[in-house]
């Protein structure tokens, strides 16, 4: 089954063709990051306008590169939640028009389920059930993936997402947006034990996370040093900060795997591209004999191939929508199905 998939929930316009949920035929991503960098974060209005300009060009590129005729497309998939509402609406309306013209089903996909499904593209052997930590710019979720479509949130960040915390740390260090990869580069050669940062825990909710205290601690450290005219060891600060994020994510995920009896852990989302966090997961999983799945870098960030992958399983579960499909800025993973 050939699915044409669209993703426009934030600042990447993406179009992909995916076969049977597992094989990428074409995967086109246009990142708007440079346009937003000057503002230090995503400007929703600019993002929406940019999606409008990019989406048809990217669709044509996707079909041309794949050498696929429109009549060979069996269904159209689109991210319908969560995200920036204006940005989502561009993808949803474009996808609905495309599906209507072709006379094929439209499959709405929850963005986080898409991130999790990026692992199906990278690992043909991976099948639910498994535990997944999804860490991106907007969400940090520990998810019990019971089946391809039935998922339960075990824990989530009570405040900032892990990616947001990377971006704010980058900003206070004068690094460009989006900051994750710049913090990673700066951390190389730094001493990860030089600065001690707090790790947020929520009493009575062991799987929930909190990153706002860590963000504030980094900002205070930098501002205090500036006021006193003291030099900061920037590489060690970046390394110590990354260690604090990793220490908040990895042991929590291991604890959940142990309690739920999982021997398969997947990690997903933009922050899963972080080399040190990947390494910490690898070490802890090896130690426990747990199989670890983390997509390659190009499938960690936002893309449409992951939407096409999840769409295949949504289609098999009968989760298609009508032409009145709407977009939703926020929607919990476990209350997915707002289109019905
Ligand atoms: O999944 P994603 O592309 O978009 C959302 O759905 O949010 O994630 C973007 C986030 C940004 O906060 C970015 O700074 C972070 O992923 N990120 C990283 C790295 N690469 C991207 N964070 C840490 N280390 C990286 N190498």
SSE sequence, one letter per element:
EEEHHEHEHEEEHHHHEHEHH
* Helical content (DSSP H or I, runs of 4+): 40-55%
Spatial sequence of strands, sheet with the most strands: 3-2-1-4-5
Question: Main β-sheet, in a few words?
Answer: 5 strands, mixed
Instruction: Report the CATH superfamily of the largest domain.
Output: ATPase, nucleotide binding domain
CATH topology of the largest domain: Nucleotidyltransferase, domain 5
Which CATH-level-2 architecture of the largest domain? Answer: 2-Layer Sandwich
**Low-pLDDT sequence parts:** none
- How large is the radius of gyration? 20 Å
Shape: globular
Secondary-structure-based class equals: alpha/beta
Bound molecules: 5'-O-[(R)-(carboxyoxy)(hydroxy)phosphoryl]adenosine
Summary of the model, kept short:
The strands form two sheets. This protein has a five-stranded mixed sheet with strand order 3-2-1-4-5, with helices on both faces. Strands 8-7-6-9-10 form a five-stranded mixed sheet, with helices on both faces. The protein has eleven helices and ten strands.
Structural summary, described in words:
The protein has 340 residues and is α/β, with parallel strands linked by helices. The protein has 2 domains: 2-115 and 300-316, ATPase, nucleotide binding domain (Nucleotidyltransferase, domain 5); 128-297, Nucleotidyltransferase, domain 5. It is 44% helix and 18% strand. It is built from 11 helices and 10 strands. The protein has helices spanning 33-37, 44-66, 85-102, 111-122, 162-172, 180-187, 212-228, 234-260, 275-288, 297-300, 305-316, and strands spanning 2-7, 12-19, 23-31, 75-81, 106-110, 130-135, 140-145, 151-156, 264-268, 291-293. The strands form 2 sheets. The protein has a 5-stranded mixed beta sheet with strand order 3-2-1-4-5, with helices on both faces. Strands 8-7-6-9-10 form a 5-stranded mixed beta sheet, sandwiched between helices. α3 links the parallel β4 and β5. α4 (111-122) packs across α11, α5 (162-172) runs parallel beside α7 and α8 packs parallel to α9 (275-288). It is globular, with a radius of gyration of 20 Å. 51% of the residues are buried. The model has no long low-confidence stretch (mean pLDDT 96). Bound molecules: 5'-O-[(R)-(carboxyoxy)(hydroxy)phosphoryl]adenosine (KG4). 5'-O-[(R)-(carboxyoxy)(hydroxy)phosphoryl]adenosine is lined by residues 10, 136-138, 163, 166-167, 178-181, 184, 269-271, 273-274, 301-302.
């Amino acid at each position: 089954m050939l699915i044409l998939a669209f993703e426009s929930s934030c600042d990447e316009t993406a179009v992909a063709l995916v076969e049977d949920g597992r094989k990428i035929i074409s995967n086109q991503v246009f990142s708007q990051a440079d346009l937003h960098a000057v503002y230090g974060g995503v400007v929703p209005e600019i993002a929406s306008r940019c999606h409008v300009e990019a989406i048809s060009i990217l669709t044509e590129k996707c079909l041309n590169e794949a050498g696929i005729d429109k009549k060979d497309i069996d269904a159209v998939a689109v991210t319908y939640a969560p995200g920036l509402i204006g940005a989502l609406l561009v993808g949803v309306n474009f996808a609905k028009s495309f599906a209507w013209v072709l006379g094929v089903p439209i499959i709405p996909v929850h963005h986080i389920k898409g991130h999790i499904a990026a692992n199906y593209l990278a690992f043909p052997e991976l099948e639910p059930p498994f535990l997944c930590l999804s860490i991106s710019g907007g969400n940090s979720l520990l998810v019990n993936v019971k089946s391809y479509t039935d998922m339960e949130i075990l824990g989530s960040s009570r405040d900032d997402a892990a990616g947001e915390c990377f971006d704010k740390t980058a900003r206070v260090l004068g690094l460009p947006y989006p900051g994750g990869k710049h913090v990673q580069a700066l951390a190389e050669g730094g001493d990860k034990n030089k600065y001690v940062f707090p790790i947020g825990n929520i009493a009575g909710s062991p799987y929930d996370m909190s990153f706002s205290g860590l963000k504030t601690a980094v900002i205070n450290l930098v501002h205090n040093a500036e006021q006193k005219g003291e030099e900061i060891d920037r590489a060690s600060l970046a390394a110590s900060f990354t260690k604090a994020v990793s220490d908040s994510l990895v042991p929590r995920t291991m604890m959940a795997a142990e309690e739920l009896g999982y021997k398969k852990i997947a990690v997903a989302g933009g922050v899963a591209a972080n080399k040190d966090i990947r390494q910490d997961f690898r070490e802890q999983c090896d130690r426990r004999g747990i199989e670890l799945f983390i997509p390659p870098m190009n499938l960690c960030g936002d893309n449409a191939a992951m939407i096409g992958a999840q769409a295949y399983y949504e289609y098999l579960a009968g989760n298609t929508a009508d032409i009145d499909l709407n977009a939703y800025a926020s929607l919990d993973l476990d209350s997915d199905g707002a289109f019905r």
